[in-house]
Amino acid sequence: MIALGRAAAVAATLTLAVGVAEADSFGGIAANEKSYLVGASRVCSPVVVTAGAAAGSPACHAAPADEVARMSTRLPSAERGPKAALTATAKGRALTVAGADGAAVATWTSADTISRVVDVWQSPTGRLIVVEFVVRRAGRELHDVVGLDRGLGRGEPPATPPSTEPPTAPPPTDPPTAVVDPQLARVVAAARKAKGKTALKGWLIVLSLAPDHPEALYRLAAIDAAGKRADAAIARLEALAQSKAPDALEWLVDARFDKAFAKLVGAPRFRAAVGFDRAATATYERLMGLGGEWEQPLAPCDRPELRLTLRRDRRFTLQLRTSCQGSRDKVTYRGTWAATGDALTLQLPKPDTGDDQIPCRLAVDKDEDVLRCQVDEELAFEARPSRR
After folding, report:
1. Ordered alpha helix ranges (H), 88-194
2. DSSP 8-state assignment for residue 268
3. Given its phi and psi angles, is residue 288 left (phi above 0), alpha (psi -120 to 50 degrees) or beta?
4. Could you tell me which of 151, 145, 157, 101 has the C-alpha nearest to residue 128?
5. Contact by Cβ (8 Å): 94, 55
6. pTM
7. What are phi and psi of 102, to 5 degrees?
């Protein structure tokens, strides 16, 4: 369900001279992580962080309800307590956001002296940091909100020429496979079943047989991260980024969302290794690089709400929910997917034999990928990545 954010905390409205939302509270981050909501209806574009510093004020405007709905806003949990990935502190007009290791992530200067910091949030991929703080203005204490854009995905996406042809189903393709010798296959299978020191030894043996084996590098990086050996973990991922194996990119994408690496997400070396802050180029990365989740917001009596989840094993779940004049319906489909170039096929198994196919095509709308699919003559959808 689309989250529209929480209501404004105060009723008074004042003219904002500095471009930061005034006397209001943070309402959530847009699904595409390019804007955020203040109060119930004020949409703001964040200030861009360059070389660790941000200057200026967010650009905000009062948005109608339909624009707010299209944002598909999420309200993440505030970063609090000993496990917080970020902390924010203020001195005078200077606001500093630091990572869990205490290193500064971003700095920003307010137009007014900051009395105290209320809370800090970050988007699922870490692109946006939002800080709510208190300033004293005109003899009153007011809550202000600033969003800082760290730059994830600000590179130009691959150009896709416009097509007037309807999407057609590409020939099915299987996940990339590599030819392995039987001995290596046996060692890999044993390492997957092992735990603790036995697993560590097993994956080291795999590397001795295949020095750039993607899964071995990934598993060893996770073991290093669990052992709080951050530099060693990142070094493994950097080696994985250099691997020529066809599935190396898939493991790098997995690392972006693996809880084993959660504490490393803010580290520049980690982000560079897994490709967090560059535009996707390969089809797999465009489809899966932000979590493999795609969505279309609900427009009652017009278009269904859609959630498409693609998984690394080439399986998918498609949920459709419709609502019109009090009538509601929800249906879930499951099947497999295959991609070739900018074409994606969702394959639904039939009860008897064969598959039904839903042809889709990857395109670019401004600076964001969009997935256009034609289910049948009457039903089509246009989904965009959902950051998780």
Report:
1. 182-193
2. H
3. alpha
4. 151
5. no
6. 0.61
7. 90, -10
